[in-house]
Amino acid sequence: MRRKKRFVRCPGCGSKIFATRTVCPGCGRQMTEAVNRKKRKKALLVGTALACVLVVAIILGARYIIKRRTEISLDVHIKADAGIYGVTGSSGFERLSTEQKKKELEGCFKKLKEDDLVDSFEYNEKEQIYEFTYEDGSLGAAALCSFDKQLCAIDKSYMTEESDGSVVIDSTLDIGALGYSYEKAPKAKVFGFYATDELKKWAEKRSEIWERNGMKTELDTKVTAKKLESGLSGADLVILDGHGFGFRKDTALCFGESATKTALGKYSKELRSGQMIELITPEGKFLCVMPGLFRTHYAQGALDKTVIVLGACCSGDTQEPAKAIRELGAKAAVAVNGRIFGSYLAQFEDAFVYSLLCGDTVGDAVDFAKSVYGADDAEWSRTFDGTPDASRKGEKGSVFAVSGADKTLVVLKSIS
Q1: CA distance between the termini of the chain
Q2: Per 3-state DSSP, what percentage of the chain is helix, strand, and coil (rounded to 5)?
Q3: What pLDDT band is residue 167 in, cutting at 50, 70 and 90?
Q4: What is the rounded distance in angstroms from the CA atom of residue 365 to the CA atom of residue 36?
Q5: 165: Cβ–Cβ under 8 A, 6 or more apart, which residues?
Q6: C-alpha triplet 93, 95, 98: angle, nearest 5°
Q7: What is the DSSP string of 275-321?
């Protein structure tokens, strides 16, 4: 196809001439249209290129800002963790006095701050941990001591009082000489962080006892935050047996998930948003969940048919954990005040569940467990031989019903 030629008018004489002409044949006027056209075309190309560069820069900048605000800096975490664990995990650290440990960690945090790896840090006297903020805004804690294996662990089975003064609860429920059955067979999920194989075996034995008494029980001893994001649903009873500690006027729950490089990447957004924190102790680096994790992953009313037991130290010391559970509509919630001996807590849970399966309310089950084992772990340690002296931790640990004390786990029906 023949290309159509473009014409312009001479501003001097008005003659119609080709646009490519540089001189008007009518009046001899110098024409600049061709030159201007070339300049305009070049300017248009340059402007388009600059606009594209600007758009790409804006997109990349926005992505960087979003990532900075929603994800952790893996490099910062790895370098900071290496520095902190280089102190807490060093040989002889646990043998140092409290003041010496504080001095060592204080120096470490100052160095990390100078290196722009840590933004701020503060010592929590009650918990004996350093609460700190990574340079990327995520949160962490460094503990002076390892987890106490006597706290939030389990080592004994069902108990009732015997003639010799010992207490053993039978593995078969006393519900009117088996004159009743459950209207609906209950289902339980137990998430547990157990320090030794012996404790893990005991937890498996306890699950078998509950199974024999008609409650389908799932035991998970390899708990991850991902499982907690959906695992609380679909059960009538959920028990969260882990370690707990106060952190920034809240409570952090630890179930033993290691803070590996892979895990840090997987939970980047949860760590950056404060739904999770890192905990560095002399025995290793762990990931801990905060109440915000449950609020984020469960809708209101999601747990309306569930009794929740927060079997972790300090889970009842602040409002947040139990408050988060209540906001999700849990039928009832039970939590722990203070640091508590795991053996007492485990036995308390045994008696508590035994009572629930007999048709008692949550409040009655709490009272029953206390009548068997004592109102707190101090009373328990004085009553039963071979148990640790509660005075060494300087506080009493107790269990209480946070909400739903009038609710029951099961409904019994007569089969006689």
Answers
A1: 100
A2: 40, 25, 40
A3: very low
A4: 91
A5: none
A6: 80
A7: SEEEEEETTEEEEEE-HHHHHHHS-TTTTTT-EEEEESTTTTTSSHH
Q: Taking the C-alpha atoms of 84, 393, 290 and 88 in order, what is their torsion angle to the nearest 10 degrees?
A: 10
N residues, the chain? 416
Position 151 confidence tier, pLDDT thresholds 50, 70, 90: very low
- Residue 258 in contact with residue 267, Cβ under 8 Å? no
Q: Are 169 and 350 in contact (CB under 8 A)?
A: yes
Task: Could you list the beta-strand ranges (E) of 193-229.
Answer: 216-220
Q: Hey, what amino acid is at 5?
A: K
User: Following DSSP, what letter does each residue of 59-111 receive, concatenated?
Assistant: HHHHHHHHHHHHS--HHHHHHHHHHHHHHHTSTTGGGS-HHHHHHHHHHHHHH
pLDDT digits (tens, 9 = 90+) for 102-150: 999 999 999 999 999 999 999 998 888 999 999 999 999 999 988 654 4
Cα dihedral value 37, 43, 48, 51, nearest 10: -150
pLDDT bucket at 23, cuts 50 / 70 / 90: confident
List the CATH code of the domain at 180-251+293-414. Answer: 3.40.50
**Which residues, in sequence order, are CB contacts of 147 under 8 Å at separation 6+?**
195, 243, 254, 281, 283
Are residues 236 and 308 in contact, defined by beta-carbon separation less than 8 angstroms?
A: no
238 vs 232: CA distance, rounded Å = 7
Name residue, tokens 């935050």. Answer: 225
Rounded distance between C-alpha atoms, residue 188 and residue 208, angstroms: 12
pLDDT tens figures, 229-246: 988 988 999 999 999 998
Residue 392 sits at φ, ψ, to 5 deg, of -70, -20
**Which residue has better confidence, 22 or 158?**
22
Total H helices, total E strands in the chain? 12, 17
Tokens coding 388:
């640790």
Q: Which residue has the higher pLDDT, 112 or 301?
A: 112
Question: Domain residues of the chain, as ranges?
Answer: 7-70, 74-143, 180-251+293-414
